[in-house]
Write a structure and sequence with these properties.
CATH class: Few Secondary Structures
Protein name: Cytochrome c oxidase subunit 7A2 like
Strand content: under 5%
CATH architecture: Irregular
Subcellular location: Mitochondrion inner membrane
CATH topology: Cytochrome C Oxidase, Chain J
Transmembrane segments: 33-57
Number of domains: 1
Family: Belongs to the cytochrome c oxidase VIIa family.
Shape: rod-shaped
Order of helices and strands: HH
Number of helices: 2
InterPro entries: Cyt_c_oxidase_su7a_sf (IPR036539), Cytc_oxidase_su7a_met (IPR003177)
Radius of gyration: 22 Å
């Protein structure tokens, strides 16, 4: 239990340090990778939805 409290306290100090880095990127490379992956998937999903809406809005050609 003591080890968990020490680890939690040291992480709190990392987040409180005023170094100009956003809170979601404070812990380094892994945070950057997760952030960029999340943003890429979000933008890709949004573009895919807009493309699907555009295709669905087109009138069908009669056969």
């Amino acid at each position: 239990m003591q080890l968990l409290q020490i680890k939690k306290h040291s992480l709190g100090l990392v987040y409180l340090k005023a170094d100009g880095v956003p809170i979601h990127l404070k812990r380094g490379v892994m945070d950057r990778l997760l952030y960029r992956t999340t943003m890429g998937l979000t933008i890709g999903g949004t573009l895919y939805c807009l493309m699907a809406l555009y295709i669905a809005a087109q009138p069908r050609k009669p056969q």
